[in-house]
Amino acid sequence: MNLLSEIEQRLDSPTARDLANAVGRAIRDGVLPPGTRLPPIREVARELALSPTTVSAGWALLTRSGTIRTNGRHGTTVADTAASGGRYRTALQQQADFSLDLSTGVPDSALLPALGPALARLTSAGIPGNYLDDPVLPQLREVLLADWPYPAPELMVVDGAMDALDLLARSVLRFGDRVAVEHPSFPPLVDLLEAVGVQLVPLPMDADGVVPAALADALSAPLTAVVLQPRAQNPTGISTTPARIAELAALLGATSTLIVEDDSAGPTSVSPPVSLGRVLPEQTVHIRSFSKSHGPDLRLAAMSGPHEVLGPLVARRQQGQGWSSRLLQRILHSLLTDATAIATVAAARDEYARRRAAVVDALAGVGVPVGGTDGINIWVPVHDESAAVVRLASQGIGVTPGAPFALLPSPQDHIRVTVGLLADHHGEVAAQLAAAANTGAWRAGAR
Residue 119 and residue 222: Cα distance in Å, rounded? Predict the structure, then answer.
């Protein structure tokens, strides 16, 4: 295999960024596995008809992103970016089984709607007229659009929110693009964007959502995309207010920045649906997941956006898997229209809110303030993250360390706790969380 021929096939134009893009695509396609030694800069320049300066600049982009490594006489090699397992694996890996595992971020299975009635309505798997049929069931499309937060220019169904984000990242983003994300942020999203090779721009949040001044600063240079969680942000539980949506829209409206909204809380959120798409529909991609409301294994999410963005995604899927299972779409349609299932999801939404409020109020009563207002997770400030995680583990309680969510230095450590799984004993667990939050404080005072 000629490595340079593989890179050349993926090279769109003779620039440093496109060279970095070509190498990145070759790595993702498995052509350049970890450990592959790349030719010297001058050889690359000669074979690809580029200047050595262009190749050097492209290599610098790849090095800054951690995609390649240069080691003196050993030359330049493709880095093993999966060796560490990424932020997501770091956040969820556990050393022990817990009697109470509040680290997972998953919904309570006892609160999910029953599938029996929906499955009973299925008499066959169904066969499409042909493989180019509309990938979205018309009856499901109608139900989704009736409840969408703005008039959607185009709609598609995908295999969950992360599938939607992966499709967007690999189709729209290019190596070295600047992409703004919330701080703190969902680790799998960060892992995905780092794998694509973009430059992350963290956006601090306050009680109303992303801080407008931070977005304004980010927009001082070209920003390809901004990714937001408008409701029940993971991990903070912050839901963006309509007033903040208006402020962010005023900043983004004068740009070509693509707005990606990941409404992963979906129907479990107690906050009203909000979207920048109401003001900027031609710039906004809105994703709604049904994993927390109807079950993670349903693996379905809906995504709206302008045709210029979604059209190529649909075409790309037709060259591969084609569509998200219409069988699963029929099940989702049944769950979204069945009165009993609708009532079950509404009851789950109220129960998650009750559980969250019970723990947050108990923590506030012992001096541990928790922000956010929504969702199955809470973001608990602690004096020493590692000490808090270890102490709780010793008591049989699993929580998620906060470091994998952080993109900026912070004077305050945190842990994420999935209180949506906590049906009772809220006061007792809150007391244990509060004690863990203060673990190590006496040592700091002694200093």
Answer: 49
User: Which candidate, 259, 272, 329, places its Cα nearest to that of 299?
Assistant: 329
Count of C-beta atoms within a 10 Å radius of residue 442: 9
Tell me the two tokens of residue 54: 């262009």
> In this structure, what token pair is assigned to residue 81?
């970016």
Q: Which stretches of the chain drop beneath a pLDDT of 70?
A: 1, 64-65, 72-73, 81-96, 125-132, 440-447
User: CA nearest 293: which of 203, 216, 240, 232?
Assistant: 232
CA distance 58 to 267: 44
Tell which residue, 117, 35, 13, has the closest CA to residue 341. 117
Residue 192 tokens read as 């995905």
Q: What is the DSSP string of 24-48?
A: HHHHHTTSS-TTPEEPPHHHHHHHH
Q: Minimal CA–CA distance to 109: which of 298, 307, 277?
A: 298
The 10s digit of each residue's pLDDT in 403-423 is: 999 999 888 999 999 999 999
Count CB neighbours of 228 within 10 A: 25
The count of other CB atoms within 10 Å of the CB of residue 99 is 8
pLDDT digits over 380-394, tens only? 999 999 999 999 999
